[in-house]
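Example complex used in Figure S2.
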Amino acid sequence: MLTDLHHPDMSKSEIKIGEIQDLAPFPAELEYSCPSRGSWTIAHTPMIIPGAYMIYIGASSCLRGVVLSAAEYEGMDRFSMVLIEEKDILSGDMEELFIEGVTDIINKLDKRPSCVLPFTGCIHYFLATDIEYIYDELSARFPDIDFMSCRMTPTMKENEHTPEEDMRRSMYSCIDRLPVNPLSVNMIGNNQAVSHAGDHLALLIRNGYTVRDLANCYEYSEYKQMGESCLNIYSLPVAEWSCECLKERIGQPFVYLPYTWDFGEIERDVDKLADTLGLEHPDHASARSRAEKALAEAKAAIGDTPVAIDYVSSPRYIGLARLLLEHGFNVSEIYGDAITPDEAGSLEWFRENFPDIPFRSTANFRARFYDRNEAEKYGGHLLAIGPKAAYFTGTNHFVNMIENNGRYGFDGIAWLAGAMTDAYENEKDTEAVIQVKGWGCSA
Amino acid sequence: MKQVVRVLSTYSADLFGINSVLYELGGLVVMHDASGCNSTYNTHDEPRWYTTDSMIYISGLKENDVILGNDEKLIEDICETAAETHPAFIAVTAALIPLFMSTDMKGLARVIERRTGIPSFGFTTNAMDTYISGGNMVYGEFLERFCPDERPGHGSNKLSVNLLGVTPLDFSIIGNVEALRSYLEDNDIAVNCCMTMGCSLDEITAAGKADVNLLCSSLAENGALLLREKYGMPYVTGLPAGRYAAGKLAENIRQAASGADDCSRSNRDDASSFSAGQHAYGGVWIIGEVVFAASVRECLENDLGLKDVHVICPGERSCGLLRPGDVMTHEEEDIENCLAQASAVIADPIYRRIMPRGWRSRGVKFADIPHEAYSGRMYRSRMPLFIGAGFTDVLQDLLCTQREIGMNDIMKNNVPFAKKKKY
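Predicted assembly (866 residues):
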């Protein structure tokens, strides 16, 4: 049965991009969660660590989402829980429940895990649970297992470090210092392995470097071997703190090579990488030309079809919209709730060039009331980049890109142009695809 | 060890039960929590989320508001949303942290109602109990509030029922609700109100027009009890699952309507009567929501001639349907003990994970009946229609063929990045 809901004031969940003054332009009110689910969560990301086993300690409602995520990617063999009850909050025995619960689980496993990731929740911090004592005791009981202290603390999402940043910190916290291998480099923080065709990795591989990417590791020893690398590279802002911690703890320097869509920035960043490692700057002309050609071909195929973009697709989604507009595409709308400081330049460009493009919230309560039939208005011919844009516009033509899909630089641009053409020409089962949680995750 | 869940899942939580019951009634429902509960509910427990609009939101509780006790932020946000959307009612539920803060949910609702003029409800959920508990909270409070003290006139000579406890958590969206309506229609019984899939708040208000309440899930037991107390309405507990029950249930409804036999069997037992220490040994075990599980037991005993059939009830209500040897528990350790010598198990596929070693080679049978409130959406394509006489054949087939569900529905649509397993 359809319910007759009154429509709220939609002007409060949509503004013109040229009018954005604040990087979080919508007020913090009741939050909506749309059915698009491609992003990886804390129940997915640690699965890229070979041999890792997750144990969550919390209330059943908090744990239902994570256990069913694990079940859906067929990962329940790597997952257990300890349920908190009301008496545990009152008794002050949270440490004992934690230690004995984790111990019981490990002792009954058929297979000894290489590392265990116990997850504390918000409640542990509000109760001032002695986390340090817990890990000291667990490490003493299981000296052959690495413990990574992880948090599921959504109430603390506006703290100095977000839960997503903390997840990345934890995941790399058992990499120990090894003798430095000057020809080994780590990629830090990605869920999907970074493509070796990306301009930065191509440079490294041409120069004989071994690139260690956790998403590509299949043995725990490969994870530990990351300790020998001479440099860490990260492209997702959420991995910055992890790199800072690695530098402080085991002395690995790091460099930020963002998933930019700006030609000049790609060249500067790749050159920066070359300088860091003492390599010659590559000749960017042919890569740039390939990207230009791919964009031109995509434009010829797609024409003036409206293109909608969301924040899930790329951490630099404003920059992506700018790239497409600069190449003649008809970007009709952008879906996001916050913008990173990295995007200030692109925002300024929009103010001067395309100030009227609508910027729509995905999480404000009013987002529930979007018509979701934009594609229908264009006879089904609307191309979305990102799963949330696909949902909100109601299109079946979309690129299921999540956090850049590991594609970087000019190569990433050429890849996206090809993916856009493919999406324009071929429909997807939007409802089935975008509801998969943690797209690409498996155990 | 108690509280350790080594291999199993959890049931849908109390606040999700409230959401599910209220989903179609045009209200504003707010879970007071940081985040996570919202996406958990609408991803795993709410199959209507993609296609049917409903105002289920989360408050976005943050650390500072926890420490400073800033209830005013929640109240203001709700009032602003209500001012724009004009909901039929407002319901606020609490997750773990509000419980820890001792948030006065009833008090919050009173303030919200005073400011908005909209009927408001505060539910002191704890995020640790199951959807059964949450559902009962709603049924108790909503029927008390919205059903007038004076029973409305019948308006028809035809025998009619209210269906209590119908949500996707127990019935999914695979046709069970439609089948239940058809069954009643075929038996010349009208449905006054199907609470709460395909009904309106007005229909709930007029619940007293029906002759009998049919309690379809333990999540609505409070509703049946309240309407009995308020209007003297009898109720019948059960589902027409299988040949025997399909024949018997309509008869029970008629008897209840005539006043000859009130089949209400509420609260004759409690959890302490069915503790894990008193469980039966061996035999057939059914795990699940108690009205469904008891209905499956009827089918096994009366249609298939099986004996020694026991129930594990993981929810908080037994509805008078348990027998000696049955167990009320959600503890993995207890369930493991109950199933140790089972000859057959009928349960959600996730329970296969707790079967004793070597069970297949010993000829133990397992029949998969996915339950949305347990495994969520992932096996929906394999949920059987359990309403109607045809369920007997379905159940027999499941027990005989021992077909296992391979890849779940979600993984079928996924494309894993990793080339091989990492564990």
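DSSP finds 17 helices and 14 strands in chain B. Chain B touches chain A through 86 residues (CB under 8 Å).
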